[in-house]
Write a structure and sequence with these properties.
By secondary structure, the chain is α/β, with parallel strands linked by helices. It has one domain: P-loop containing nucleotide triphosphate hydrolases (Rossmann fold). 26% of the residues lie in helices and 26% in strands. The protein has 6 helices and 7 strands. The chain has a 7-stranded mixed beta sheet, with helices on both faces. The structure holds guanosine-5'-diphosphate (GDP) and magnesium ion. Magnesium ion binds next to helix 1.
Length: 222
C-alpha cells in the first residue's frame, strides 16, 4: 500500500483530561470509563484515506474530477500528563505536524496554569509549520465552572500567543462530540496549509519575539 504522506500528531495536556480516551474514541468509537493512566508515552498508527486533487494540490473528503484517493499515515503519540513525564514532551514534540492540547472543560482553576504550560512549549519550540489544536474536552459534563472559549482566548493573548495556527474544538470522548471532526478537520487543514514536501516541513524553529504580529490568527470551531 503506498503512503502519500505521514503526519506526526502528538497529544499533550494534564493528567486525566481525556487524551487517551479521545484517541481511543477515534480508533474504536467507544468510551471506557476506567481507562488506565498512560505510562510515559503510547504510540498508535492509523491510515486514513483522503482525496488529493492533483490540479490544486489540495486534500479533502470529497471526490471531484482529477482527485486521487490517497493514503495518509497518522503517527499518533499519546503522552502521560503527570509532571514527572514532562521532560519527555520535547522529544515527542520534535518534528510533529499537529499538536493536540487537551484541556478539561471543568477544570476552571487550572486553566491559567495549563495555557501557560502550552505557551512555554510553543515559545521554546516554536515552529510555524505546526498546527496547534485545542480540545476543550469533557463537554458532556455541564457545570457552573465550564470554561468558555473567550476566556481561553484572553489567556492566549496574555501569554503573547498571537499569530499561531490554532484551531479549537469542544469535544467529548464520552459522547464522541467533535472527535472525528477534530481529527479530520485538523489533518485536512494542516495538509492544505503546509503543502510542501516532507523535508521542508521539518525546519525553521523561529524566535518568537521577532515574529510577533498584531493580527491574531486565532480561530474558533465550536
Ligand atoms: N465525562 C467524561 N469523562 C471523560 C472524558 N474523557 C475522559 N474521561 C474520563 O476521564 C478520566 C481520564 O481519562 P484519560 O483518557 O485516561 O485521560 P488522560 O490522562 O488525559 O489520558 C477517565 O476516567 C475517563 O473515562 C469525557 O469527554 N467526558
Ligand atoms: Mg492517558
Amino acid at each position: 500500500m503506498s503512503i502519500k504522506k505521514k503526519l506526526k500528531i502528538i497529544f499533550i495536556g494534564d493528567a486525566s483530561v481525556g487524551k487517551s480516551s479521545i484517541i481511543n474514541y477515534y480508533y474504536n468509537s467507544t468510551f471506557n470509563n476506567n481507562n488506565n493512566s498512560t505510562i510515559g508515552v503510547a504510540y498508535h498508527s492509523k491510515i486514513i484515506k483522503l482525496n488529493h486533487d492533483i490540479k490544486t494540490n489540495k486534500y479533502s473528503t470529497i471526490t471531484i474530477n482529477n482527485s486521487i484517493n490517497t493514503n495518509i499515515m497518522l503517527q499518533i503519540w499519546d503522552t502521560a500528563g503527570q509532571e514527572r513525564y514532562r521532560t519527555l514532551v520535547p522529544i515527542y514534540y520534535k518534528n510533529s505536524n499537529i499538536v493536540f492540547f487537551v484541556i478539561d472543560n471543568n477544570d476552571y482553576n487550572n486553566i491559567q496554569k495549563n495555557i501557560k504550560y502550552l505557551s512555554d512549549i510553543i515559545k521554546t519550540y516554536l515552529n510555524f509549520n505546526i498546527t496547534y489544536v485545542i480540545l476543550l474536552n469533557k463537554f458532556d459534563i455541564l457545570s457552573d465552572n465550564n470554561i468558555d472559549i473567550q476566556y481561553i482566548n484572553r489567556w492566549f493573548n496574555q501569554f503573547d500567543l498571537y499569530d499561531l495556527d490554532l484551531l479549537f474544538f469542544k469535544t467529548s470522548a464520552k459522547t464522541g462530540l467533535n472527535i472525528n471532526n477534530a481529527f479530520l478537520t485538523s489533518i485536512i487543514h494542516h495538509l492544505n496549509k503546509y503543502n510542501t514536501d516532507e523535508k521542508k516541513q521539518k525546519t525553521d524553529i523561529i524566535n518568537f519575539k521577532n515574529t510577533k504580529k498584531n493580527n491574531s490568527n486565532f480561530c474558533c470551531i465550536i
